Structure formats: C-alpha cells, structure tokens
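Hey, I was hoping to borrow your eyes for a little while. For a while now I've been wondering how a particular protein folds. The fold is given in discrete form, as structure tokens running alongside the sequence. Could you read through the record and tell me how the tokens relate to the sequence? Take your time with it, there's no hurry, and the full record follows here:
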Amino acid sequence: MMMRRLVVIACACLALAAGAQATEFSADEVASFQGDRESGRLYVKSPAVTRSESMGMITINKYPFIYQLFEDTKRYVVTNVEESSSGASGELRPWESGDFQSWVAAQGLTEQGAEKIQGFDTRIYQGEVVLEAGLPPMPIKVWYAQRLDYPVRHEVTVPANAHMGLGVETVTVQLENIEIGPQPDQLFELPDGYTEVASLHEAMGLSEMLPGMFDDGSGPSAEQMEEMLRQLQQMLQDGGGHP
C-alpha cells in the first residue's frame, strides 16, 4: 500500500510540474512496481488542472488544491499545495515551480539525453527529489515530451524500509495510448455522492478498519502498523473492499 501511495503521489506531483502551455490530452497511465502492473487513466486540461484515476482512487489537481477521492468509501480529502510546502501538511511535498523547466532547475535535475517514447520526442532528466515528507530524497528519471509539455515516463527508486518489509524498488509510470484533444470540463469537478473528511486515513477508511489507532493524533505503533498492513493486504486480495 505504501508503494501504491508513492505511485499516486509521484503522478500527482508530476502533474503539478507541467508547464504553462500544456496540450490537452488523455492517456492510459501504467505503473509497474514489485512485479505488478497497474493501469489507470490520466486527463490533462491545463498545467494546473488534471485528473488521474488509479487503484480505486481519483486525484483531481486544481492548483493549489489536490482532491483525493476514494471510490470504496465515497470520501475525499483536500490538500492545499501552498500550505503543504510551508509545512502545514505532511501528506504531500509539492513542487514549488509553476512550469516543468523551472521545476527541473529547482530540483537540480540534469539533462541526460533524448529518446522517442510512444511516438513523442523526449528529453531525459535525472536527479533526486523528495516525494513525501519524512522520506529521504529518491532518485528520479523523467522523460519529458515538449509537444505535450508533460512527462510521458518517469522512474522513481524507492529506498528500502525493513520495518515495512520493502526492499529497494523502482516504480515506473508510463503514458500509453495518448490522445490529444479537448477534455470535458466536468471531469475536473468533484463528482456527486462524495463526502469531505479531514484526513487521508479517514478518507481511506482506516479509522474504521483499525479503531482508536489515530484518535490521539500520534499515528500507529509498530504493532498497529503491522496489523494495518496485514488487513490492507487481505483487502487487496479480496478485491479492494473493506474486510
């Protein structure tokens, strides 16, 4: 689940890094990690307005707000990117710049060559970025298509975490079946039937799954985390619903 969250966060943050003249398009968004492939959809209206659908989660970026909606709980949580960058929220560490090239410069990425992907000429950038508060910088490699003003592929190397049972893992996200054209406005509005909640764990339904774990605001203990992971793994095996 942590790996899946990092995939979603990486996609959301890269969406915010797109430039000021991005082309409207939609695409399949395919994430590969831990031997699995997860396919979702990406819709780009403008640099500051995007929508992704993956792993039972809808992410709508309307800068400076990120809306994370969970289909199984019918709940969503809102993150203000500008407040997050000042430390008000540890869920996401957003990009600071307003366009891709400024983001590349701010992150200290270096250009490493060029490659054609999915029929688009790309420039390759490489370096290290912070994708989530509290985690160390992670190596990243980005294939940027100037025609789209958007990355069509990126790879993030996630460090090992012995407590979570994770080794070093490379997460790859690539766009496929890219279709350039106008995107409907309603895709980027909140759908009916969802309720706003205060935190990500509440939106995911973890408060009901493990009662009392988050009541004092300190978060789960090591034993509680292991139990949460066990239940999440079982939930995924059962098809994504609540246990």
Q: What stands out?
A: The first strand starts at residue 25 and ends at 33. The CA atoms of residues 164 and 225 lie 8 Å apart. The two ends are 15 Å apart (CA to CA).
